[in-house]
Amino acid sequence: MDLESFLAAKPLFYDVIDYDRFPKAYAKIAHFLHLPKIIHIVGTNGKGSTGRFLATALSRAGKKTGHYTSPHILQFNERIWIDGEDVSDATLNDAYQKLGKFLDTSTAESLSYFEYTTLLAMVAFESCEYVVLEAGLGGEFDATNVFDKVLSIFTPIAFDHAAFLGSTIESIASTKLRSMQTNALLGIQKYDEVQSIAHEIAVSKQCRLQTLQESIDSRIRTRGLQLALKNGLSEYLRDNCELAMVAFELLGYKAQEVYFDQKALFGRLSKVAHNVTLDVGHNALAASAIAAAFQGKKISLIYNSYGDKDYREILSLLAPIIDCVEIITVDEERIVERPLLEAVLVELGLTYGTFESIDPQKEYLVFGSFSVAEAFLKRMGKL
Q1: Contact 129, 63 (CB under 8 A)
Q2: Does domain 3-259 have CATH number 3.40.1190.10?
Q3: Could you tell me the pTM of the whole model?
Q4: What gap in Å lies between CA 122 and CA 263, rounded to an integer?
Q5: For the domain 270-379, what is the CATH superfamily, name and number?
Q6: Which of 36, 125, 239, 304 is the most buried (most CB within 10 A)?
């Protein structure tokens, strides 16, 4: 069976997660794998952009570097990035064949889509010096947390995936922060509780914890501002860039402007046409950042949402910048039923309709999830 068919047979989402399954599977094959130096990125928002800033910088500094991120927008290869390029089909197939020799069939079939592809990525990354490894869900029990790491980076932590992580910021933060090991860097946080919990866990684990506020100096602040002005970075992308710069220096290198820019990013306030901006954010924290980036403007929002997201709060946060909402059709079971979405739009007093085409005279924002971005790009022929 080829890789595409093998992955297609695996469900992408589970109502219940078996937290013991992956550590047991990894223990069976750990001795076969050559692990690079791993930088683990955990958080609610900013993992992808922070990770790509850091991976790009390490690569440009001459260190062969991989970046594991999820989900993808158009093709699976986007999840496994090596030195500036999405992994090739040939490299993917080689990794699949090699993993098949390590992992028995019953174990391979029992793993979830994300668990299996995490092992696949680690095989593909074997020749790398560094790997920036992005957690999928949570931190402590995430598949990516089984590997030893040289540094844990925590981006902003907020409410998301309540069914698995809990409904309080304390429970969510604790689950994510317990993934720290020996060295950790805490980014700017919206909730004060996150910082206090981080320090408590660091003490209990004897982990050297530094915060962005404590570690950043005027030189990096200046470089961050220069990059923001030069590349048109929004405030939240500038924060993520500065977090990556500090992490880069914690790894023993000097942050230089030539290593950091927005060229490597896609899907984070990306201009896909002169009047269309696309962002794969999908929760309230992302919506707040987007609203700040578009402050003073009015846009047409091309939108849809998963049913388990708080789309009412997201839309209420975006309401000040919305001229109208154009609902895009997304063919996926998790998408909210349209009448429920429409009821919220009516409640918020937002004008809405169905997305049909782009009017060159209007300003658009595509926002809602990776699936919304995928549906839009395919619709507009951006493949």
Answers
A1: yes
A2: yes
A3: 0.85
A4: 25
A5: Mur ligase, C-terminal domain (3.90.190.20)
A6: 125
